[in-house]
Amino acid sequence: MGHYAQGLPLALKVLDGVAIKGLPCSISHLTQLDYLCLKNCRNLRSLPNTIGHLTRLSTLNLEECRNLRSLPNTICGLKSLKTLGLDSCSSVEAFPEIMEDMEHLEELNLCGTDISELPSSIEHLRGLWHLQLNKCEKLVSLPNSIGNLTCLVRLCVSNCSKLRNFPNNLRSLHCCLRDLDLGGCNLMEGEIPSDLWCLSSLKFLNLSGNHIRCVPVGIIQLSRLFTLFVNHCPMLEEIGELPSSLGWIRAHGCPCLETETFSSLLWSSLLKCFKSPIQLAVSWIGDLSFQEGMEYQSGYAIKEWDVK
C-alpha cells in the first residue's frame, strides 16, 4: 500500500466499495485533498492517525463501512472539514474526543452507529448545524454540552429507543434550533424534556412513535412551530391547544384517537386552535369509520376515512 497514495488525485478521491482494509499513512502527503469517499468499504477497519494532516479536506464520507471500529483522535486536525458521514457504520462504538475547535464542521451523520453516548467535547464543533443520530439503538444520553452548539439548526434522534437522558439546557438553543426529530424514541408520559417548550425558533417537531397520552400543554409556547407529527402514538388520546403558527399536523395510526363521530375531541380541539378560516374536505362513502387519522396542511384540513 506504500505506493498507493502517490497515485491518488490531489483534490478528490472516491473509493466507493473498494475492498481495502486501511489507508496508508502516506495519505498525509496529499495536502490538497478536498473530498474523500470511502463509502461501502466493508473491509475497512481503521483510519491512520496521519489523516489529521489533511487540513484542506472538506468532506469525509465513511457511510456503510460496517467493519470500521473507530476514528482516530487526530480527526480534530481536519480544520476545513464541513461534512463527516458515518451512516450505517454499525461497528463504531464511540465518537472520539474533540480536543480542539472544529469551527467548519457543519454536518455530522452518526445514524445507525453503535454509540451509547457522545463526548462532552462535542461542544468544540462550534459551526455544527445538522446532527443526525437516527437509529442509534444503544444511545442512552445526550451531553449537556450540546446546549453550547449555538449554530445547531437540526437535531435528529429518531428511533433511538434507549434514549432517556436529554441535555438539561436545551433552552440554550432557543435562537437556533428549528428542527427536532424525537420520533420512535419510546418516550413515556412525562419523559419529554420541559426545556423543549423554550425552543422559540422551533418550526418542525416529530413526536411520532412515542407513548404519550396527550400532546404536552407546553407546546403552545412554540410560537413559530409550523409542522407537528404525532403518528403511531398508541396511547395518544388527546391533542389540546396548539400554537396558531401551526400549518401542518399529522396524526396517523393513533388508535385511541379513532372515533365514528365528526365532533371528536381531536377535531374540536383543532377547530379551536386554528383561528383562521379553514376548508373542510370530508369524504363520505356509505358507512365509514375513522381508520387512519387526521392531517391538516396549508390552510385546509382533511379527515381520512376508510370503509368498514
UniProtKB/TrEMBL annotation:
Residues 78-258 form the Disease resistance protein RPS4B/Roq1-like leucine-rich repeats domain. The lineage of its organism: Eukaryota, Viridiplantae, Streptophyta, Embryophyta, Tracheophyta. It comes from the Eukaryota. This is Disease resistance protein RPS4B/Roq1-like leucine-rich repeats domain-containing protein. PROSITE patterns: LRR. Keywords: Leucine-rich repeat, Plant defense, Repeat. It holds the Pfam family LRR_13. Gene3D superfamilies: Ribonuclease Inhibitor. InterPro entries: Leu-rich_rpt (IPR001611), Leu-rich_rpt_typical-subtyp (IPR003591), LRR-SigEffector_domain (IPR050715), LRR_dom_sf (IPR032675), RPS4B/Roq1-like_LRR (IPR058546).
